[in-house]
Amino acid sequence: IDVSGLSAADAEVALSAQAVRFGDFALGATDIVARLEGGRLATEVRRLSAFEGVLSGEVVVNGRSGLSVGGDLAATGMQLQPMLAALADYDRLLGPLEARVKFLGAGSSVDAIMKSLSGEGRVDIGQGELQGFDIAGMLRNLDTGYRGPGAKTIFRAITGSYTIAGGVLTNEDLNFDAPLVPATGIDKRREEVEQKAREAVQGEIGKRLGVEAVEGEKAEDTLKRGIEEKATDALKGLLGGKKQN
């Protein structure tokens, strides 16, 4: 990557618009200021409206001695389904997103920059749905083949923080909060549902989620772990890292 052109001039450029369109991709109200000085380009994103929310922060490309790229960005109130559909060709995860990422990378090629990336961030998804898996319906009906109308798993929240080191994103506190097996009905019914859940984890549901029960682990925890991994896979493409846990 040749960034010698950044040293050719000093400049300041501001963009303010009610809407911006790039082909089929549209943004809402936009306010961006870019400052180029001595081979360093700092772009301040004061407001970038997209997917019903707002992105703000700063991205810096520094070519003064080699090449480094860094940023500090925050997303507020963005809707995941249209975002993931547009950026990652995935439309099964729905919910409002609050996110923050700080990153820094250096190198003379895209590969070198990606392998050097370091940083940290957090993702908070409010009440939403994971479409394609109706775990609660399967358990309520004691039928691993259950396909209810609009098959989906409703969750209260998905939250987690992460670190980035050597280009690898690591998460250790992902929490998936969902009423997978509602605690209602008489004890006998609840015991029956729990037993069916244990069998389901070893059977079709476990296979579909790609998880295996760990000895001593509750069936509900195994199911939640599988769904957490599905949700994380959807987010991983946006963050550009690899899940380690």
Summarize the structure.
With 245 residues, this protein is α+β, with helices and mostly antiparallel strands.
Q: Describe it for me?
A:
- There is one protein chain.
- The strands form three sheets. Strands 1, 4, 5, 6, 7, 9, 10, 13, 14 and 15 form a ten-stranded antiparallel beta sheet that branches. This protein has a three-stranded antiparallel beta sheet with strand order 8-11-12. The protein has a two-stranded antiparallel sheet with strand order 2-3.
- With 245 residues, the chain is an alpha+beta fold.
- It starts with 10 loop residues before the first strand and ends in a 6-residue tail after the last helix.
- 27% of the residues lie in helices and 40% in strands.
- The chain has helices spanning 80-88, 110-116, 135-140, 187-202, 204-209, 219-239, and strands spanning 11-17, 20-22, 25-27, 30-37, 40-50, 53-62, 68-79, 93-94, 96-106, 118-125, 128-131, 152-155, 157-165, 168-170, 175-177.
- A hairpin with a 2-residue loop joins strand 13 and strand 14.
- It is elongated and about 75 Å long.
- It is built from six helices and 15 strands.
